[in-house]
Specification:
There is one protein chain. The chain is of the alpha+beta class. It folds into 2 domains: 2-74 and 187-192, Glutaredoxin; 81-185, Glutathione S-transferase Yfyf (Class Pi), Chain A, domain 2 (Up-down Bundle), CATH 1.20.1050.10. 54% of the residues lie in helices and 8% in strands. It is built from 8 helices and 4 strands; from the N terminus they run βαβαββαααααα. It has helices at 12-22, 36-39, 60-71, 81-110, 121-138, 151-165, 173-182, 186-192, and strands spanning 2-5, 26-29, 49-52, 55-58. The chain has a 4-stranded mixed β-sheet with strand order 2-1-3-4, with helices on one face. Helix 1 links the parallel strand 1 and strand 2. Helix 1 (12-22) runs parallel beside helix 3, helix 1 runs antiparallel to helix 6 and helix 4 (81-110) runs antiparallel to helix 5.
Amino acid sequence: MYTVIGSIKSRAFRVAWMLEELGQSYDLIAAAPRSDEARKYNPSGKIPALLDGDDVLTDSVAIMQYLADKHGALTAPAGTPARARQDAMLFWLIDEFDAILWAAAKHSFVWPKEMRMPEIKDSLKAEFTRSATTLAERLEGPFLMGDEITVPDLLAVHCINWSIGAGFPRVDDRLGTWAADLRKRDAFKAVQARDPA
């Protein structure tokens, strides 16, 4: 049994979705970023964290890939060209989707007001839109890496959801329809059902 530390309205959603896709049971300990509860598991106070026995793992994408590797699902095997392509997509999404959204969050509510530069958000939105167009052009099969769902799919859809909540422009219809289809998966809906709101 795993334990996820975090909030469903955070990057912890990705980890919970991964566990649901893998059919693994888990507990969820609600913890806000930088809270005392979060700092018990990660000195930086960042969420999520994952407890696997005595091991505490941090960073949502590292956790997702760890779970995929451990359970041999939602990933190409390590040491294969397919895995290198999958990792390239994953790293691209971290740089071109996640990092942009995180920068916007920092300038919206994370940093103290005196450190925020709200005027930067327009350029971040434009950059995200450009990246979303690139991703739509790379989408050739039902999933980002072809015929099977993999870690990058979960990351991309979570980022698209985040962009909607952050008031970013809509992604194009092709990418929007693809993300909407993945949100219909039972595993995704199971995580949504855990949200107390």
